[in-house]
Amino acid sequence: MNTDADLRIERVETRLLDIPLFRPHGFATYTATAQPILLVSVHLSGGVTGYGEGVVPGGPWWGGESAETMQVIVERYLAPVMVGRQVNELAGIMQDFEAVVANMRFAKAACDVAMHDAWARTLDVPVRDLLGGRVRDEIDLTWALGVLPLEEAVAEITERMETMGTRSFKLKMGAGDPDRDTRRIASLAARLRNSGEEVGLRIDVNARWDRLTALRYLPRLADAGVELFEQPTPAHELDTLRELTTRIGVPVMADESVCSPADALAVVQAKAADVVAIKTTKLGGLLESKKAAAIAGAAGLACHGATSLEGPFGTAASLHFACATPEITFGSELFGPLLLKESYTTEQLDYSDGVVRLPEGPGLGLEPDWDKIEHFTRQ
Ligand code: MUC
Ligand code: MG
């Protein structure tokens, strides 16, 4: 039985891991060959440790933070706010972060998750129980392909259908000429249709197209059978997003547009999207993600369990969130660990039949593999 004295945050440690990807992942402006992850460990006085990941999709191109900036922010500014406090003051600690560090939500998310993990472990319950409890035990999975040539994309889709039962695929766009990019996706859609495979295709432009480019090419993608457009245009242009949402007849998902609960409210008020991508990282952790999902859900928008390509701990955290949050009605893309060449936990998340399942056990339900962690630690 843990006492109050056991819940004191004694020490916060960070280390940078560089984990190679099994293949390069091409985004709109950058191609990643490894995923840098800031592993944050929160040590409690009773001997329990919780883990969180500071992670962005590939690098600072997405939202301005990187694993390196997060290390400075956590070590120098956020750790002093945590140390000496009780871990069951989590909401108060998160509030106090705001007095010391503005924005930097990915860094705060790593701390939020490590504290949730540590606190849940002291109670011997899964993190899901701290987030409201069970809504589901598994969630549908969309697999994301980077920007890939046609044949490689077809091979990867076929392989994932056969080995994991995946039926939903996200294709990254926004790199290079939009006309060529659109033809690449339309050919892939036609190829899959002709092979008789029933798969859903969606695209993510990562905010790279302007209004006219989107108005020109999204209808062609709609004709090709693309079923969802993720963030085609810049994050703050909510009028443009609303226009696309209402004009083209294919659901639009807001991703870069929603990095806080206030952003979720702005998207709701502007009627700018049909679906909101909830990355627990970009929102600053599990507590803030709950607020954003509640706002979107109250307006009747669907929420998607999105990813920053987290490793095992970060993905498990997003999975606990998705499994405790009724508003996540639009499935997930929590496939991050499978993009890594190797994992660094002793057990792996269970992916099959088109879903990913919540692990059992206290906290996040995963344990660190220290040999692997040492191996991947940046020197
Ligand atoms: C994003 O913007 O959604 C998620 C999957 C992927 O390939 O990129 C990320 C980031
Ligand atoms: Mg996105």
From TrEMBL:
Pathway: Aromatic compound metabolism
Database matches in InterPro entries: Chloromuconate_cycloisomerase (IPR013370), Enolase-like_C_sf (IPR036849), Enolase-like_N (IPR029017), Enolase_C-like (IPR029065), Mandelate_racemase_C (IPR013342), Mandelate_racemase_N_dom (IPR013341)
Molecular function via GO: chloromuconate cycloisomerase activity; manganese ion binding; muconate cycloisomerase activity; racemase and epimerase activity
Cofactor(s) it depends on: Mn(2+)
Keywords attached to this entry: Aromatic hydrocarbons catabolism, Isomerase, Manganese, Menaquinone biosynthesis, Metal-binding
Biological process terms in GO annotation: menaquinone biosynthetic process
Top-level division of the source organism's lineage: Bacteria
Xref: Gene3D superfamilies: Enolase-like C-terminal domain (3.20.20.120), Enolase-like, N-terminal domain (3.30.390.10)
Keyword check for Metal-binding: yes
Domain Mandelate racemase/muconate lactonizing enzyme C-terminal: 150-251
Family listed: Belongs to the mandelate racemase/muconate lactonizing enzyme family.
Record NCBIfam families: mucon_cyclo (TIGR02534)
Name of this protein: Chloromuconate cycloisomerase
Organism of provenance: Corynebacterium imitans
High-level lineage: Bacteria, Bacillati, Actinomycetota, Actinomycetes, Mycobacteriales
